[in-house]
């Protein structure tokens, strides 16, 4: 039983609770009427964090292309080519000018998912390569 001289303990009606509730509603309203430019900025920054698994794999293999080990670079190019996607083939293009002949030769196969004209333009310089293996 409650004493008559103590006020009721209803947290919902306390001043602090009302201020917090008002702040939450205000934030919700402001987000609801945000300008398109602001929404575009937020979605663009959020989009960089929301890459597809394929895009993340392409990024991973692109990073491996910078390895000091030729076998790692060759494996990265092989995996990019196995994806059979133009964007993966574009990621493999730096392998065409690699110092290692095995990486250059493997890249020649990996870029075949590109449109025919683009792939031919990239492959023609390899016909003059010093190594017969690459040609």
Question: What is this entry, summarized?
Answer:
This protein is mainly alpha-helical.
Question: What does this 3D model show about the protein?
Answer:
The protein has 135 residues and is mainly alpha-helical. The chain has helices at residues 15-32, 36-49, 53-64, 70-82, 86-92, 101-110, 116-123. The chain is rod-shaped. The termini are far apart.
Beta-strand percentage? Answer: under 5%
Helices, by number, come to 7
Shape annotation: rod-shaped
Indicate the radius of gyration in whole angstroms: 29 Å
**Mean pLDDT figure:** 79
Q: Please give the alpha-carbon distance between the first and last residues.
A: 95 Å
Series of secondary-structure elements, N-terminal to C-terminal: HHHHHHH
What's the β-strand tally?
A: 0
What percent of residues adopt helix (DSSP H or I)? 55-70%
Which segments are poorly predicted (pLDDT under 50) over 5 or more consecutive residues?
none
Structural class: mainly alpha
Major sheet, described briefly? none
């Amino acid at each position: 039983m409650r004493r008559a001289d103590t006020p009721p303990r209803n947290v919902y009606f306390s001043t602090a609770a009302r201020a917090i509730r008002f702040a939450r509603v205000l934030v919700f309203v402001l987000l609801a009427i945000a300008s398109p430019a602001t929404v575009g900025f937020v979605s663009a920054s959020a989009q960089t964090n929301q890459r597809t698994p394929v895009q993340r794999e392409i990024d991973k293999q692109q990073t491996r292309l910078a390895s000091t080990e030729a076998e790692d670079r060759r494996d990265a190019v092989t995996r990019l080519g196995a994806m059979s996607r133009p964007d993966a083939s574009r990621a493999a293009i730096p392998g065409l000018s690699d110092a290692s002949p095995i990486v250059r030769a493997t890249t020649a196969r990996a870029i075949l998912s590109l449109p025919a004209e683009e792939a031919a333009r990239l492959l023609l310089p390899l016909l003059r390569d010093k190594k017969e293996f690459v040609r």
